[in-house]
Design goal:
The complex is a heterodimer of chains A (about 220) and B (about 475). Helix content of chain A is about 55%, strand content about 10%. Chain A is an alpha/beta fold. In chain A, α1 (about 5-15) packs antiparallel against α2. The longest helix of chain A is centred in the N-terminal third of the chain and has 21 residues, at about 35-55. Chain A is elongated. The radius of gyration of chain B is 24 Å and the shape is globular. Chain B contains 18 helices and 20 strands. Chain B has helices at about 20-40, 45-55, 70-80, 125-140, 160-170, 185-195, 195-200, 220-230, 250-275, 300-315, 335-350, 370-385, 395, 400-405, 415-425, 435-440, 445-460, 470-485, and strands at about 40-45, 60, 65, 85, 95-100, 105, 110-115, 120-125, 145, 175, 205-210, 215-220, 235-240, 245, 280-285, 285, 320-325, 355-360, 360, 365. The chains are: A alpha/beta (about 220), B alpha/beta (about 475). The interface of A and B includes residues 58, 158, 186 and 199 of A.
Chain lengths: ~220, ~475
């Protein structure tokens, strides 16, 4: 296939969450020696942007987004080894995300993590019931720009406050995000978190703003 | 004329609905047993794992996964009592949960409240817990008082105990905690009021709800509460709130299996801890909205799942608690009216023993006192519907029709007065006036009328107070708990 055709198929594989098609395209890109960066940027990533926009508009359901994101992840996995180091594109930022200590609710956090990947963040999910040091160790390890924490219960909200304090003590320069059913702007202000997101879309919008602001 | 005895009469008393054929009930049960034995549940609690292992479950200490042999589940379902008493400080408020008896209560661990005086939606406080309990105490269709909102203006580690203090002192109805963490202290508070642990066990004026985390997990804190309550012999409500499509299969049948498995797994632990101790089967499972990424609490699915699981609980002979009076609307509007009615009615017709959610708005995050008063009226109408139509010689009234004859009317008949109370629904805040009269009285909508009503309750209603020494003991329990944590 020509490069143009491959790029068009890449978009299609995302829109139709067709992992077999994506694999087929990646194999051909590698075999033909076509620039993988272009196929990612103009193809797969463009497809994900379309998916993201449709979801923001409530035109497609969440499972489509999640499935499309899995296809995207597969494509990146296959093509990344073939990208020369210097060509690797700039991600918007690196995010460490997790549910705080004492809480094992994670669906909301998983949705936000997926959406952040969709919108170009590099996401490191530390899982649930995570004490502050787990977030901090990961943030140090990957050089995170953002640390995002979630909680479903009022009784575990103090974990977000501890995390905020310990991050400050650690000296790490990160932008913090908080979310979860009982969380609100008032709480974020009280504990000194940088961003409160009522949902994934809001969190991403605010994070992007701050990232582009040259933080 | 003689009204002769009828030798054997089939009567269907009250209206009802039936979701499933017997074969379908068995299929749900068997699917559940299969999940519990092949997949199991993760229980993050060492003592619980000991209890489960000693009782015959297969326990893996590495990943905390417990697999339940089917015979064990069925034994525990058998030993759990089919009748549970929710006692009130005032025995007139006692409620029995059994069979197809139907009751209603308010919701439920909300984190926001519509301010009674400004109308502003804001974080809930201890004072709100007290006010809401007082209104619940006054409203005749709220059968028990549940922990409505979280007290966000007190230290988190003892907020549940502050909430308990606030509601226990503002109602003589049974109190069901929905935000419990400090199980021992709450039980102690109940014992102080009841006059001792034995008295509390005989007449439990308190109970608590715990939920699993779907799919198939029991977290440490909640497991603790199950064990404490089982040991104390105080009713505990083991409840699942799976979201179909997210934390359970999107098919409602699969969501039933998930809720059923989590509750039954919890009941096994409960019964192995204390055989015969009182326990409730709980549901708040609903679907998951894939466009808004929310769990809609007013969708018809939640009432259907509640009705279905009420039917399963009847099959198990367990008392059952379901979600049935919630709305996703942020305000008291037609959406709220519809959602609360469709789900309250469906679950009531299914014979659920306690249907909760009165007063809640906004996907269950907010309590509104106007809505609580409106829901009191909705529940009253639902009860009338479920009471059905009584068919007998007197109600068929052929004698009366004969007597009154053709033309004339029934207004002056004793029969009319005698049966008015039981046969007719009575609106206290819903408007049934003609237009002119309604306009003359101010042309108010029901929300405005409800608002006036609760303001009046807050001003005039005085729940029976607890003696000072009891009040002081409650405060001491909270202080000790707070110091213990420090």
């Amino acid at each position: 296939m020509s490069k143009e055709a491959l790029i068009a198929s890449a978009i299609e594989s995302i829109e139709k969450y067709d992992i077999d098609l994506a694999e087929k395209i990646c194999k051909e890109v590698i075999a033909e020696g076509i620039d993988p960066v272009e196929v990612i940027d103009e193809g797969f990533t463009k497809g994900m942007r379309k998916i993201g926009a449709l979801f923001s508009n409530k035109e497609i359901p969440l499972p489509v987004v999640v499935l499309a994101a899995e296809v995207m992840q597969k494509a990146i996995e296959l093509l990344e080894p073939h990208i020369p180091e210097q060509s690797k594109g700039e991600k918007i930022g690196k995010v460490v995300i997790g549910t705080v200590e004492g809480d094992i609710h994670d669906i909301g956090k998983n949705i936000v993590a997926t959406m952040m990947r969709v919108f170009g963040f590099e996401v490191y999910d530390v899982g649930r019931d995570a004490p502050p040091h787990v977030f901090i160790d990961k943030a140090k390890e990957v050089g995170a720009d953002f640390v995002a924490s979630s909680t479903m219960m009022t009784t575990t909200m103090p974990g977000q406050e501890s995390l905020e304090q310990q991050l400050k003590e650690s000296g790490l320069k990160v932008i913090t995000l908080v979310g979860g059913a009982p969380v609100n702007q008032h709480w974020a202000d009280r504990i000194g978190a940088d961003i409160y997101g009522a949902d994934a879309a809001e969190a991403i919008e605010k994070a992007k703003e701050l990232a582009e602001g040259g933080e | 004329m003689k009204t002769s005895l009828i030798a054997g009469k089939d009567v269907r008393s009250g209206s009802s609905l039936k979701m499933f054929a017997q074969e379908e009930i068995k299929a749900i049960h068997n699917a559940t047993l299969q999940v519990l034995s092949d997949v199991g549940m993760a229980v993050y609690h060492d003592e619980a794992l000991d209890i489960l292992e000693a009782g015959g479950a297969n326990v893996n200490r590495t990943d905390n996964v417990v697999k339940f042999p089917p015979y064990l589940v069925e034994e525990c379902l058998n030993s759990a009592p089919g009748r549970v008493l929710f006692a009130g400080r005032n025995p007139e408020h006692d409620v029995i949960l059994e069979g197809r008896r139907v009751g209603f209560t308010n919701g439920g661990c909300a984190v926001m409240v519509d301010d009674p005086y400004t109308g502003k939606t804001r974080e809930s406080t201890k004072a709100d817990v007290a006010n809401i309990a007082k209104v619940c105490d006054a409203l005749e269709n709220v059968d028990i008082t549940s922990g409505a909102v979280v007290a966000r203006d007190v230290p988190e580690i003892v907020s549940d105990l502050h909430e308990a203090e606030a509601f226990l002192t503002n109602t003589t109805k049974h109190c069901h905690h929905i935000n419990l963490v400090n199980a021992r202290e709450f039980i102690e508070m109940g014992a102080v009021i009841a006059g001792g642990m034995e008295e509390l066990r005989k007449r439990p004026i308190i109970s608590a709800l715990v939920c699993s985390v779907s799919p198939l997990q029991l977290h440490t804190e909640k497991t603790d509460i199950i064990i404490e309550f089982a040991k104390a012999g105080i009713p505990v409500n083991i409840l699942s709130m799976a979201m179909a499509g997210a934390s359970a299969p999107i098919t409602l049948a699969g969501a039933l299996v998930m809720n059923n498995a989590e509750v039954l797994g919890g009941i096994v632990l409960h019964q192995l801890t204390a055989k015969g101790a009182p326990v409730l089967y709980g549901q708040t499972t609903t679907t998951f909205d894939m466009f808004n990424s929310t769990a809609p609490m007013g969708a018809p699915e939640i009432g259907m799942v509640g009705a279905a699981l009420a039917e399963m609980a009847h099959f198990y002979n367990l008392p059952v608690w379901v979600a049935g009076c919630w709305t996703d609307s942020k305000i008291s509007d037609p959406q709220a009216g519809h959602e609360k009615t469709i789900n309250a009615l469906t679950t009531a017709l299914a014979g659920a023993n306690m249907i909760y959610g009165m007063g809640m708005l906004d996907l269950g995050t907010t309590i509104s006192l106007e809505q609580l008063v409106i829901d009191n009226e909705i529940v009253k109408m639902v009860r009338r519907n479920v009471a059905g139509i009584t068919i007998d010689d007197v109600t068929l009234a052929v004698d009366l029709i004969t007597k009154v004859g053709i033309g004339n009317d029934f207004l002056n008949q004793r029969h009319t007065l005698d049966y008015m109370e039981t046969e007719q629904s009575k609106a206290s805040i819903f408007d049934r006036n003609n237009r002119e009269a309604w306009e003359k009285e101010g042309g108010k909508d029901v929300v405005a009328v409800a608002h006036e009503k609760f303001l009046n309750i807050l001003k005039t209603h005085k729940p029976e107070a607890l003696p000072d020494d009891v009040l002081n003991k409650l405060k001491a329990i909270i202080a000790n708990a707070e110091n213990k944590e420090k």
